[in-house]
Amino acid sequence: MNRTLDHEIIRKLRRLFRALTAQRDETLKRFGLSGAERTVLEFLYPDAALTVPQIARRFRVSRQHIQVNVNSLGDQGLLLQTENPDHARSPLLRLTNKGVTTFAAIEETEKDLIDRLFQTIPAAEKVVAARVLGQLLDKL
Hints:
mainly alpha, Arc Repressor Mutant, subunit A
């Protein structure tokens, strides 16, 4: 099949995304978390305070989807809800100490994988890749 270079780049990005997602899911099994739960933790790490609607907008998913994950993370003792002075019906979410420690451990595990992936790629090529990916994201 004849593909343009642009299409080939997108195809490789999709394959890379799927491979990274599989690796992430395998890593998260050790922590008993899903990818969506990891994302919620990331938005709050290390000391942010956000509401469910704010996280949903950033994640570009429904509030209900985030609420399910928030409930699960709360049940695991990883986050807590605090009073929101700006909106009584939409509490602020914060990580507990366990949540901070857990996400730090996840990041450390991911750092090792990222370091291995990029160890043979020259710095100049990483700069170009970051710039191009940023441009693509800006256009979306």
